[in-house]
Amino acid sequence: MHDIIRQQNIDVNTVITDGSYDxxxxxxxxxxxxxxxxxxxxxxxxxxxxxxxxxxxALVEQKTDFNKWKDSVSYGKRWVVESVFSSMKRMFCEYxxxxxxxxxxxxxxxxxxxxxxxxxxx
Length: 122
Fold this sequence. Notes:
Layout: H1 2-7, E1 14-17, H2 24-32, E2 36-39, H3 53-64, H4 66-73, H5 78-92, H6 101-120
Parallel strand pairs: 1-2
């Protein structure tokens, strides 16, 4: 995730992810870059002194009232993005055929543009 955010010339305000991104380095990176984390912590997560304070805060908020946390960070809207990714994968397959990174970006942008064109005409 670090590389994706650093390489793009875009403003990122919030990162919404599932529990696979629940680790201190991610919370630390997001905090350092003034990005709001909306990361669902793992079920077995515990408050620890060596955790990043934003991770501990997210843990407390989620354990106290998960639905309130979910609404406060718009976590429920993540399914929209997942649906679009799934549709694009079904339409264009889930692989990128380009080998070089700049060409990968161009290929994905072309697929996204075509996807947007297809859904806007239906």
